[in-house]
Write a structure and sequence with these properties.
It is a single chain. This protein has about 120 residues and is mainly beta. About 5% of the residues lie in helices and about 50% in strands. It has one helix and ten strands. The model has no long low-confidence stretch (mean pLDDT about 90).
Length: about 120
Amino acid sequence: MQSTSIHSETAEVNFFEFVGDTLTMSFKYISPSGVLIDLTGWIVAIELRKAIEDANPILMLDSVNGGVQLGGVHNIAITLSSAQTATLGVGGFYYFIRTTDTVGIVNTLIVGKIILRHP
């Protein structure tokens, strides 16, 4: 499991994994003063696209319907299952992690690329 502390409004983080393996991404969303942000009542979602300009994601997970967990030591944990990485197959995928706070403000927190390859 990779863990990253985020100190900016939008960060870029890339991941490399094998097709058919579970990919777990854990992040600490902290304030500029270093305090872990309380995400109670927030929605966090990840969208994957084959091309950055694609309008529709090929996979979307969120903290309401599953795949994204909030709380704990790393207050954002995202899991792509082995079945999901197998279905995606070999290639590069752009991802966007967005937060929606309790008053509806949407922020793109993290962007990057997930590279899936054969073991």
